[in-house]
Amino acid sequence: MLLRVPLLLARFLHNSRLRLIFLALIVLLVGGILLSYRWQTDVQLCFMDSNQTDTTLATASAMSVLQLPRILDNVLLTDPKPIPGRSIFFHETSCHRPKRRRQRPGQRPNTQYNMLQLTARQACAIESAALHNPNFQVFVLFAGPTYRYHGNSSIGQRHQPIIDAILSYKNIQLRQLNLWSYAAGTPIEEWLKDGQLFRSSYLFSHISDFLRFLTLYRYGGIYLDMDVVMLRSMEDVPPNFTGAESNTHLAAGVMSLAPTGFGHEIAEACLRDFQQNFDGSDWGNNGPGVITRVAQHICGTKDISLMLEDRKRCLGFKVFERNAFYAVPWKHWRHFFEPQLLEQTLAHTKDSYLVHVWNKHSKQLAIKVGSSTAYGKYAEQHCPKSYAAAGEYF
């Protein structure tokens, strides 16, 4: 049998058609590996150590002269810092790196910057949180080095109406974080170094999942997804809560944990569950899956209805019913955008703390500013500055 292998291989290679097919497969395989490696490298650069990036840049004063952008302040190093238990957090984990341009002879090196960008809908979520919770600081944390233009130069005066709208609120802070230093000293520090997170098939989503639990471990407070609109204050809602999304799962888009005691223990349990059960091929396992499993352990049941009905069994960890945060389920996300369903949707969410508009499904569907849709009405009332700055479409 072993003697036949060389003969079969020789016959295969002698056949020109088979040889071409074989070579084509090899080229495709190698090309795929190289493309994957290049994508992985580009992604790693988005979340590289910000200290390494800073060493290639001039000082702040020189940046102004050179009309270079400046990096956002690091949340761990810059005042005001988050007030434990009295802060609201959003995370931006996408990557807006420009394509590398070919450098001409004598041209200044083309340094790539991950520039600050927010959509009108993201700004709406941020503004609504700041508007309804004036006694809380609202922190928007960008994962990795993120830059803005500053100074009095013509470049420094580039108009960003969306950014200007949210920064008109004194309780909104824009910060960047470094994944590695942000995780330092926490139960998930060593796991991050393994690199499993960066091999995820849903990298940006899973970094977002990773950060929400890490932020609540560090500071406590309220975590919110960027595709929400807050409808009323949550300043006086007791800490340690999440919300049911369905009869079988809790959701991780709205969570609150106290910075000490029971809340901190829950946050630590979430970090440990995240690393023990991490699955890079499953979109929901590392967000909703984590808080659902942790709550099941705390409450001693997998039955969501029992978590809602018997408050004592969850030991003070409150599970809100669906109407609180997810009155409109993801399968009905279009209800926010259909004028004929305006009154029905507004009535259905009248007792909600906020609405979740399911950006994963709705992001491609724009609405004309001033149109009679539920989303438009929420925005007009609860994030008026962002809505006005959106332009023709929101």
Automatic annotation (TrEMBL):
Record carries keyword Membrane: yes
Subcellular localization, as worded in the UniProt entry: Golgi apparatus membrane
- Primary location class: Golgi
Gene Ontology CC, one term: Golgi membrane
Transmembrane spans = 20-39
Keyword Acetylation listed? The answer is no
Q: Which Gene3D superfamilies match?
A: 3.90.550.20
Q: Which UniProt keywords apply?
A: Glycosyltransferase, Golgi apparatus, Membrane, Transferase, Transmembrane, Transmembrane helix
Q: Which InterPro entries match?
A: A1-4-GlycosylTfrase_dom, Glycosyltransf_32, GlycoTrfase_DXD_sugar-bd_CS, Nucleotide-diphossugar_trans
GO MF term set: alpha-1,4-N-acetylgalactosaminyltransferase activity
- How does it sit in the bilayer? Single-pass type II membrane protein
Alpha 1,4-glycosyltransferase domain location is 260-390
GO BP annotations listed: glycosphingolipid biosynthetic process
Protein family (similarity comment): Belongs to the glycosyltransferase 32 family.
Q: What is this protein called?
A: GH13059
